[in-house]
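My main concern about presentation is that the manuscript never shows what a single data entry looks like. An entry of this sort, consisting of the sequence and the corresponding backbone structure tokens, reads as follows:
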Amino acid sequence: MYNKISVAIALAFSVNTQANTDSGNSPAVPEKIEITGSRIKGVDLEGTQPITILDSDAIKRTGANTVYELLQTLSQVKGGSGTFSTSESGSTSTSTPAGQAAASLRGMGPSATLTLINGRRVAPSSFAAGTQNFVDINAIPLSAIERVEILATGASAIYGADAVAGVINYILKEDYDGAEFDISYGDSFAQSDEGKIQLNALYGTELGRGNLTVFADYFKRNQLNASDRSHTRHPSLVNSYSYLPKLSNTPNIYYYSSQDGNELTAPSCKSALVTTEYGENICAYYQNEDDVLSPPFESVSAGFMFNQTFGEHRLKSDFFYSKTKSTAYSSPAAINQLDDSEGPFVSEEALFIFDDENGENPLLSSLYIDPFSTYLGQESWGFAFDARFDAPRTVEVESQNLRLVVALEGYLGDWNYETGLTYSQSKSEQEAVAGIYNRYKFHAALSGELCSIGEIASLVDGVASCNGGNLLPFYNPFAVNDAQNDAVLALTAANPTRSGKSEVFGADINISGELFEVNDIDVRAAFGLEVRKEKLSDIPSSDAVADANNGYLVDVFGFGSSIANAQRTQFGAYSEFYIPVSDALELQLAGRFDHYDDFGSTFNPKISASYRLDETMLVRAGWATSFRAPSLTQAGVKLRTTTSTFDCGANQAVADLFCEGDGTLVTVNSLELGNSQLNAEESESISLGFAWSPTTETTLTVDYWQFDYSDVIDTNMTAVLGRAISDATLRHCGLVPDGEMGISFGEDVCSVTDNRGLRIDQQGAELNEILVSYVTQFDPRNQSLQLYRDHVIQLENTGSQDIKGIDLKFDQRWRFDQSSLKLSLDMTHYLAYQRNKPGTDSEEELVGSFRYPENIARIEMNYDVNDYYVSVFANYIDGYDDDIEGLRGREIDELNSLGLLDEHDARKVVSWTTVGIRVGASLSEQLNINVAMDNVFDKAPPRVYGTARGFDSINHNAFGATYRVGLNYRF
């Protein structure tokens, strides 16, 4: 009876647990399988915890080319913005590096999900996503994976840091006998070319008393542009424009230079003019013109797995190397003044090209022609303009990853042991190849102070002269299709670089076996020790670094950088116990102590249990605490140039002072600092569920889970602004001094006082009174306190998240004489996702809000007959609220005029269901063919107005209908 129960219940905890492996020679050492979530070998602990397993057959049937594509079939990794690829990447700042991707369970972020290969850690990418280090899953070769095990609950008691939301364990192929070759090609059905090709080979053979398995993989994917799809080709809203047109579309004239205080457009704008909320007619820019929805990507990988048996001992080793290349694009960089404020100046002569045949120029008569200082300090007369460069900021990234593990396992008496050494490395190189310009050379060019050798001239007796080459004519931003003018601009281009390296050195030892016997019940246990050394460096070139001695100015326009250099040593000791209290009741108890030499120690326990009510029903429960140590980037970042967004909808006092009382989102340039005093993020998780298998062909599992996640690490610009209202030490006139933190205010705001004569940077100043004085004296366009630039904020333990949900899985199989039919449902329902609002003590509910769908589901029907199979599936993403709060007032007005908002000034993004088909056939004993089609009805992603792209590129995609054809040949 016990075996029948085990078989029935084991089916309940996987998508497909039937291994499809060709085994070579049988090793002399009996192999006992270790399931993710337990270190005790040879014991079925699947029943005590919800685990999903994708075996090799299930992986092949997904039609995935990469690990990222594979994980998109699972509901546990969807929702929120945790799981990402470079669809959201910027090219020049510290956002997701091009060509890389990360997996996140429960939407809690990739750094809260532990990634393992064969149960051991992997070096994270040296280029963090923001300040969150993550494992680049694009570097893991899919062709080498035998199965993937996903444990979506806290597991620090077993694995240590980062297993807050759970663990994804990639198990590599081993003991393979034979050879096979795969080739596949896929593309969309659109006229554009997003083609992707993959080649991989696998070879395994007996070698002595062991086995050698070798693999190689090549994958290449073309890019997808926003202009390639009708639903992304044009802006969602006319009013989602930027005041900064491209140079080739001719700049606007900055409103401060206009005699009526309005932005003016040059006569040669090539696009239709846009009317602003101020009644201006301007030459506008829309992001979709240059948006790349999916960047080009290329990867090559190779490796081996070698096992050798020596009596009761077995030497195991695995090695792989991967190299990826990608290119990322961002909208062209804005052109600012030398000090990075808006509205660069150019000589009035720039507008002479618009003189009519009588030498008249109505534009000049509409302007204030003011004095300004050139780069060399000469006085000139001119006006300010608004523009961005033509070329999108383009960065090429190359990453190399390698991993080597040597392990020895076997028996010492009745106890199984395993010990191993791990070295894992991730290296990335980044270079800007287009769209980046040196701010000093550009401003010298604007004033005719650039030499033909690309160097800035010097003043000799008050006259600009060159030490080499000739002095060039001034660069005219209003001159279009002028080869000589364009050549001057080309001399100001720059190619900043960034170099990163991440390393993990690890050693571990584990023993497991029978601890003792009580009343014919075997109590089994595992004990282990781990030591790990981690290193990380992220070093940009000097022209991409902000320096306090230079007013925090980066030498180039529109390029952010992060400097990080850190290392740490960690020691861990754990124990785990399996206690079969009776034939029906099983317990798992575990605890782990970890010590870090940089932030201290932590202990995390775990208790889980399963109880078999009868042959068909099992109930289970688990409780655990977990932690995430501050990443090396978070602890070791020296200075990160980035942007920070504050939410005026979260703090009314901040809204009144900085947002005219509106609840909008505002993004400003800022500098982030690491914090060596950060505490670890902590989580307490609970899971409750049951599995019901009335027959071996029917399985239903339902699991409730919750996480109380506290001390989450992030920057909080809203909170800093809120604290600055009462804390003058955070308010600075001009740039924040080196070594201090806080908010920077410009000259105008700092020139006024409150009713008692106190300036904004003085303690006790009434900021509301200063706002009134500032608006009265200067009448700014945006009648709120104007922030300056380069606000300095520090990473901190900002708040908490409370997440609850239910997973439901159902499998039903019908078997016939020569065929079978299987129906599967995999669904996640979020009950709550609460987090504290930035800058406040109040909580907000995210379920049903932007990017947080309440329900995510996949239903699939598989039909197998002889040597053929057909699968039809549907993926469902629930609807949620559009991100209306983050829009500008002019965009809200347009939505209202279009009748797209409800009575609460809100809008619902509709749900999205896509259908896919998989077909496979064995044409012979050696040759197999498979065809995959996704989104067969070519459904466009739902319209989302709260994002510039017009759709949610995390939860949806813009590819439309796609296909993939693959061939597999076995030798």
User: Anything to note?
Assistant: Residues 241-285+336-386+439-492 form one domain. The chain has three domains: 2-226+294-329+396-432+499-630+679-713+797-898+912-970, 241-285+336-386+439-492, 635-677+716-794. The first strand starts at residue 51 and ends at 54. Residues 1-31 have pLDDT under 50 and may be disordered.
